[in-house]
Design brief:
Elements: H1 3-17, E1 23-24, H2 25-31, H3 40-56, E2 61-64, E3 78-81, H4 95-106, H5 114-126, E4 141-142, H6 148-159, E5 163-168, E6 175-188, E7 191-198, E8 203-208, E9 217-218, H7 232-237, E10 245-252, H8 257-262, E11 265-267, E12 283-290, H9 293-302, E13 307-311, H10 313-330, H11 359-375, E14 379-380, H12 381-388, H13 392-403, E15 417-419, E16 424-429, H14 441-453, H15 458-461, H16 465-477, H17 479-482, E17 487-488, H18 497-509, E18 511-519, E19 524-538, E20 541-548, E21 553-558, E22 562-571, E23 594-600, H19 607-610, E24 615-618, E25 624-630, H20 636-642, E26 647-651, H21 653-668
Parallel strand pairs: 4-19, 6-17
Antiparallel strand pairs: 1-3, 2-3, 5-6, 5-9, 6-7, 7-8, 10-12, 10-13, 11-12, 14-16, 15-16, 18-19, 18-22, 19-20, 20-21, 23-25, 23-26, 24-25
């Protein structure tokens, strides 16, 4: 990260914002750039790059010329930025509107646009537009990460760069290289789709992300223009739902209860498969309904040697391909395991895997920092750092650049004036940077798509707050808000509505519940008495956080694995309290957890965020080392098999070996 470039861009911005008449290039070169060594041509190139960078932030750099002079004459052309250029319009929200807005932003906690949603809320907070609001205890929906491909596609879509990837074609069952202009991303029938122009076929095509077989490559040197009236939700509405098909699988006797509950038919051993082979002794033959073969293949691969896919052939091929890829990765040479020094988190949250920071990132943060300080005078420096998700050292580096930045002449009254000598940060001179910049397209997409997703929850749609805050943000976002039509999030309505309503009522009334619950790790069904605390979701998969009297601790229960749920007639214990994180974490690390080191390929890098990696380290091939805490390592062989060659265990060595044996036994079923 170049501090000098950040300071130069900030000083250029301040100079152009604080001139009415405009500044000539020669004045800027002398007073802002202090450039005396480069040639006119070299300086001109640098100045054009910096102007483009400011335009990237949305500041309209105006060109002013005197009458009778040409606009291409650098000696007479002047430059300035209007005071209102790229300023976020005033947005005043009621507490009810703030509640749904914060819920919409939290949808993206671990998905693409998570940082954009945080930045957008911070801008509203800096402008004084957010009122105090309490989140409802029974509703905390979130969007499940769709993998690294989703992250890369969102970035390419907003930057208007084509992408290439390998794709498992539905028509041929073969992997093909695709070159696509990404117009939009959306979820339909529980599947994420890319909609775009396939250059090889010369037409619009739909691509299921579950059928990507390689990482996405962004062609950053090329650009495209999407149709102006494109709306991904309308496009996906034309897709018919995949038909229900039947898969035949052989399952070890008494095992895989979850798969058995979905089986439409069962044969104990007489019926042969399509090759005329009956199931082996000790195996049950099940008929399992499914819609997407790749989704079912991912599940069956995770069961390892306990399940063998029999038909259809494309399902067998997909399972074998996943197991082979996982086995090859698990047996590959192990890279050197080295992590950066552990740094404590200011907010108590796990660290996301690092991305190289640039001067543009730092400038974007500073443009949020100044208005935030104006509206939050006297905050402790640690609170400011925590709000921006950076360390105190990083914040002080930002502040040191800010206090050295100002108008070209550089007199004391012409500089940003920020004090933090007593660890409480105050600002007395803001040089017209006191209002946050307008939403970027990513920020507008994060909030507006999140609000649209919340329409699937009737209790939030009632009362008009959801509709009114959407209209206010659309007006504030302007043209960038229109681009939110390129993204459509999944439905967040629960599949097990009865269990959700029972749990919600128990939370409201403080009642204890008894549930019968299926645990896929233990492959057993148990009965427990619980004190329900709060509900949350990932897409339409809902979870109940509760104090479990059997385990004597907090546990998270998937609603679709609850086979029965009813009140016990007793009140919940008053001492039971939910975990401290907001939104609630699906995976909460404890001090006695096992520390596991995973290697993730570039396609699987998003798993580091999903499982709250404590430390990460980038690998030369674009992959990632991730150190993660797990309450139990017994299920990690299933985890490795499920992800089909994008994740493997490196340490502990015993877990890595157990994974290799699991994969070997699973593949042995298909050797014939």
């Amino acid at each position: 990260m170049s501090a000098s470039r950040t300071e130069r861009l900030l000083n250029l911005l301040i100079a152009l914002l604080n001139t009415t008449y405009g500044l000539r290039r020669s004045e800027l070169r002398d007073k802002v750039y202090h450039d005396t060594t480069s040639t006119d041509v070299a300086f001109g190139r640098m100045f054009e790059r910096d102007k483009n960078e400011l335009r990237h932030f949305g500041f309209d750099v105006e060109t002013v010329t005197d009458k009778g002079w040409g606009s291409d004459d650098p000696a007479t052309t002047r430059y300035r930025i209007g005071k209102e250029s790229n300023r976020l319009p005033d947005v005043s929200l009621t507490p009810a509107e703030c509640t749904v807005l914060i819920l919409a932003a939290q949808l993206w906690e671990h998905a693409a646009l998570g940082s954009a949603a945080v930045n957008a809320v911070r801008k509203l907070q800096a402008s004084g537009g957010l009122a105090d609001a309490e989140l409802p205890p029974g509703v905390q929906p979130r969007i499940r990460p769709a993998g690294q491909a989703f992250e890369d596609l969102v970035a390419a879509m907003h930057a208007q760069h084509p992408v290439s990837f390998r794709y498992l074609a539905v028509s041929t069952g073969k992997e093909e290289e695709r070159l696509v202009e990404p117009w939009g991303l959306g979820s339909r029938f529980g599947q994420w789709y890319l909609v775009g122009h396939d250059r090889a076929r010369g037409d619009k095509r739909f691509f299921r992300l579950s059928r990507f077989t390689s990482a996405v490559t962004v062609l950053s040197k090329e650009r495209f223009t999407a149709p102006s009236d494109f709306n991904v939700r309308d496009e996906l509405a034309s897709l018919p739902e995949l038909p229900v098909q039947t898969a035949v699988v052989d399952v070890a006797a008494g095992a895989v209860h979850g798969l058995r509950t979905r089986a439409a038919a069962k044969d104990t051993g007489a019926a042969p498969d399509t090759a005329g082979t009956p199931p082996q002794a000790g195996r049950d033959r099940l008929s399992v309904p499914y819609r997407d073969v790749e989704t079912l293949a991912e599940e069956l691969a995770s069961y390892g040697p306990r399940v063998r896919a029999v038909s259809p052939p494309e399902l067998v091929t997909s399972v074998r391909r996943r197991l082979a890829a996982a086995a090859a990765f698990a047996s590959a040479p192990v890279p050197a395991i080295a992590f950066p020094a552990r740094v404590s988190s200011l907010s108590g949250a796990a660290h996301r895997h690092p991305r190289k920071r640039t001067s543009e990132d730092q400038l974007a943060r500073m443009l949020q920092l100044v208005p935030f300080l104006v509206h939050n005078q006297g905050l402790h420096i640690s609170e400011v750092a925590a709000n921006f998700g950076i360390t105190r050292e990083e914040l002080e580096a930002d502040l040191r650049i800010l206090i050295c930045s100002g108008l070209p002449e550089g007199y004391p009254d012409d500089l940003l004036d920020i004090q933090w000598d007593d660890d409480h940060v105050t600002i007395s001179q803001d040089l017209d940077l006191k209002r946050p910049v307008r939403f970027t397209v990513e920020e507008a997409c994060a909030l507006l798509t999140g609000l649209e997703t919340l329409n699937g929850l009737p209790e939030l749609a009632e009362g008009g707050a959801l509709e009114s805050v959407t209209l206010k943000l659309m007006a504030a976002a302007g043209e960038e808000g229109l681009k939110a039509a390129a993204l459509s999030a999944p439905e967040v309505g629960p599949a097990n509505l009865a269990a959700l309503e029972t749990a919600r009522e128990a939370i409201r009334s403080g009642a204890q519940l008894r549930l019968r619950y299926f645990s896929p790790l233990r492959d057993t069904v148990s009965e427990r008495d619980i004190d329900p605390l709060r509900l949350y979701s990932l897409d339409n998969t809902w979870y109940l956080e509760a104090y479990c009297h059997s385990a004597q601790g907090l546990r998270n229960f998937r609603l679709d694995r609850i086979e029965a749920l009813e009140p016990t007639g007793r009140p919940a214990a008053e001492s039971a309290e939910p975990g401290g994180s907001v939104p609630v974490k699906l995976f909460t690390p404890n001090d006695d957890d096992a520390v596991v080191v995973l290697e993730l390929t570039r396609r699987g890098a998003g798993l580091a965020d999903e499982y709250y990696a404590e430390r990460t380290a980038e690998l030369p091939d674009g992959g990632l080392l991730a150190e993660i805490r797990f309450g139990s390592t017994d299920w990690l062989p299933m985890f490795v098999a499920q992800h089909g060659g994008t994740a493997r265990v490196l340490e502990p060595a015993g877990v890595a070996e157990a994974s290799r044996q699991w994969l070997s036994a699973a593949r042995a079923q298909y050797e014939h």
